[in-house]
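Lecture 7, part 2: worked example. A protein chain together with iron/sulfur cluster.
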Amino acid sequence: MSGGGYLIRTFGCQMNEHDSERIAGLLESGGLVRTEDAGDAKVIVLNTCAVRENADNRLYGSLGHLKPIKDANPDVRIVVAGCLAQKDRGIIQRRAPWVDVVVGTHALPGLLDLLKQAEDDGPQMDVREYTEVFPSALPARRESRHHAWVSVSVGCDNRCTFCIVPLVRGVQRSRALGDVVAEVQGLVRRGVVEVTLLGQNVNTYGRDLSVPGSGSRSRFAELLRAVNDVEGIRRIRFISPHPHDFTDDVVEAMAECDAVCEHIHFPLQSGSDRVLRAMRRSYRSERYLGWLDRIRAGVRGVAVTTDVIVGFPGETDADFEATLDVVRRAEFDAAFTFQYSSRPGTAAATLEDQVPKEVVQERFDRLVELQERISLQRNRDLVGRTVEILVEGDGRKGNLRGRTRTNKLVHLPGTQAPGTFLQARVRGAHPHHLTADPMRDALGLPVATASSG
Ligand code: SF4
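Predicted complex, written out as structure tokens:
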């Protein structure tokens, strides 16, 4: 297909954003150009997420808005991609027959063919169960010139009872180490200075690549070292690890690899051992805190962020107090806090004893208030320090927006282009960001340590 515009709406996590870049790349390789105006679009893609709350309602609400567009112009192709496409399959076109293509998480490489078939034969669906071509092997339209997501594995072998990922993304499948390194090398040649390695459980990377009979072992530390050796890469991040699999060799690699940033996202989910068991998380709170101590001892200045779910079925006041206790002791730099909501298809959706909404809300507010106090204190500890900032773009009130190696959002004055590294002194602290002033040289110019060009 060639000519015309395409429009993509992404609902979801970084994995979805990464997939959307691939969808954009595929459509552009088919001759389409990006547009933000639905009236100009020949192809409209909703890239869905099954993890976020109300994902179904948002999808069917959006499809309702698209119906008049399709009625007015039957040549517009409407595509539903992503996790909900994988999960809901035929339901989508039964509820919204104006959808031309349903393409699951494993079937993206065939998107152009599906669009062509839809043109010739009517609505199409491909929700195959197995990834044959890694999304990263497809063309991409990158959203940023200096940063790129790099997928290292898809799927997950765990079975956390609240999580839909294993159902929609399948078992873990790792990408060959050489492919990952080659992609990073190519990205660096195009001016990328920061990559985020993406996997549902990134630190079991490579277990499925082992030679049969040799025992399965993670090769994540090896991967970090190999990417760190790519000439010109300045920052390496990764999400998300599972605490249970955070082995000493990864801590050592983090400490020894210059480009690996001092930030770990270390999902706690709950501080109650009873709830952790019900979630089928394989660690308990004291072990989790022990691992955290080990990471902080091994990686100087590391910032730790986390995920916490409030109101998992059966969570009592005592369970919630246990969570607050762990959050206090862990002193996270930041936490993504979620109110539990049932996801059809997960084991937890069938559990009785759902916690009343108002109880969940009250606990949630208390947790947020506690974490904000801790985040503010941790950020205050940085005031007066010099940090390296990678400029990401324009921020508030004419300021620049950037990030420290520890993944703290920083607002600072200046006009530098995205992708520029600056040295800056932290001036102020807030729960969710820092303010800073660029360091200046003898001529009064900001000290820029490098540029992606
Ligand atoms: S480890 Fe993460 S992705 Fe895997 S099932 Fe658990 S929550 Fe889901």
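The first helix runs from residue 14 to 29. The pocket of iron/sulfur cluster is lined by residues 156, 158-160, 163, 165-166, 200-201, 242 (CB under 6 Å). Keep this in mind for problem set question 3.
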